[in-house]
Amino acid sequence: MRELIISTGNEGKYKEIVSTLGDTFDRYYSLGDFDEKVVVEEDSPLYFENAMKKARKVGDRFNMATLADDSGLEIEALGGKPGVLSARYGIDDKDRIERVLQELNGVPWEKRGAVFKAYIALYMPDKGWVYIFYGQIKGFIGFEAKGDLGFGYDPIFYIPQLGKYLAELEMETKNRISHRGKALNAMKEFLNADFFIRSRKR
Fold first, then answer.
1. I need a surface site. Which of 86, 88, 140, 164 has the fewest CB within 10 A?
2. What are the residue boundaries of the structural domains of the chain, listed by start?
């Protein structure tokens, strides 16, 4: 049986990842499925290093293939902040959004450009292999929150091509065009490639 631990306690992120990966694995677990809590200090200034660190620590502890991601919102007018600190930019989603909007107070639309970045680390402890996948999406930070779907900064991230905020998109659409969705779909393509399947059988 192909089992995968998704190294997150964020229910919204867990559902989004499972929805995207579909039947790529037979069974999925979140960190909430285990009694033991594995603490990982995300102290690197680089997204991919934090993702690798989480995936390795959790995967080694439970001896199971593990996926971990580190994602961030980089805003042009804020010099790239909040960046790797995106998940720690406040006590909860509402607080983080309010902080960003306050820091952008008075900044005109044309200078509110932003990019969402996602690095996915897939760790396979039986082989000691770690694979990294990347995705990004560019847009703008709105003047107020809109939409009640998604999580995190989705309600303030506007996508010009669609004329909508991420929090206004159904999960299927979001999983196709979002930063995390692009990284996960790249991972799916890799896992389904003939050369990878052959290497796993050796």
1. 88
2. 3-201
The pLDDT value recorded for residue 127 is 86
Which tokens belong to 110? 């044309």
Please give the model's pTM, rounded to 2 decimal places.
0.89
| Burial class of residue 113 in the structure, from the number of CB atoms within 10 Å of its CB (0-12 exposed, 13-18 middle, 19+ buried) | middle
Which positions ≥6 away from 147 have C-beta within 8 Å? 154, 155, 164, 165, 166, 167, 168, 169
DSSP letter at 159 equals: E
Spot the catalytic one: 69, 70, 93, 154. Answer: 70
* 70 labelled catalytic: yes
CATH topology for 3-201? Maf protein (3.90.950)
